[in-house]
Design brief:
Oligomer: single chain
Radius of gyration: 18 Å
Structural class: mainly alpha
Shape: elongated
Order of helices and strands: HHHHEEHH
Number of domains: 1
Strand content: under 5%
Largest sheet: 2 strands, antiparallel
C-alpha cells in the first residue's frame, strides 16, 4: 500500500516535469524560427510535403504556435489543450522527418532554427531527431492524461476539471 501511495504522490510531479520539458523545448524551438521567419519557411519547404503557398503559411505560423503552446505548458494553463496540440506537433514532426529520410532528402530538420538542404559533408540526424520528438510526444501524452500537475495555473484557477488525472495544485 505504501508503494502505491508513493507512486500516486509522484504522478503530479512527473506530470510537471513532462509539461515543463515539452513547454521549454517548444519555446526554445519557436523563438529562433520566429526571429528568422524566412529561414523557417525555407526549412518547411525543404520537406517537400506541402504546396509552396501552404509551406510558406506553415513556416510563418509554426513558430507562433510553438511559442504559445510552450508558454501555456510552462504556466500550466489550458494544460490538456496545450498538451494535445504539443503532441500533435510532435507527431507531425516525426512524420515529416521520417518522410524526408524515406525519400532520400538530405536536410536539416529545422527543429531549432536553421533548416533546409545540408551542406556538403554534413550528414542528416534523422534517427536522433525522430527519437527526440517521439520522446516529446510521450511527454505530451503523459501531460494530457495526468494534467495539470503541480505549479500549474489550471489548479490555482480551478480549471482542472476533467477525468481522473492529478487534479489540483500543490
Amino acid at each position: 500500500m505504501e508503494w502505491s501511495r508513493n507512486v500516486a504522490g509522484a504522478i503530479p510531479w512527473v506530470t510537471t516535469a513532462a509539461r515543463l520539458v515539452l513547454g521549454i523545448v517548444l519555446i526554445v524551438a519557436g523563438v529562433p524560427k520566429f526571429r528568422d521567419q524566412i529561414q523557417s519557411v525555407t526549412a518547411v519547404k525543404a520537406y517537400q510535403l506541402l504546396p509552396d503557398s501552404a509551406a510558406t503559411m506553415v513556416g510563418h505560423a509554426l513558430p507562433v504556435v510553438e511559442i504559445v503552446v510552450g508558454v501555456l505548458l510552462v504556466l500550466g494553463l489550458l494544460t490538456r489543450v496545450a498538451g494535445v496540440i504539443g503532441g500533435l506537433l510532435m507527431a507531425a514532426f516525426v512524420f515529416g522527418i521520417a518522410w524526408a529520410w524515406a525519400n532520400g532528402l538530405r536536410i536539416d530538420c529545422g527543429c531549432f532554427g536553421g533548416g533546409g538542404q545540408l551542406a556538403a559533408g554534413q550528414e542528416p540526424t534523422y534517427l536522433v531527431d525522430i527519437l527526440r520528438d517521439f520522446g516529446l510526444a510521450l511527454c505530451a501524452a503523459w501531460t494530457v492524461r495526468f494534467a495539470p500537475g503541480r505549479l500549474a495555473l489550471d489548479g490555482a484557477l480551478g480549471l482542472t476539471g476533467g477525468s481522473g488525472g492529478s487534479e489540483g495544485e500543490g
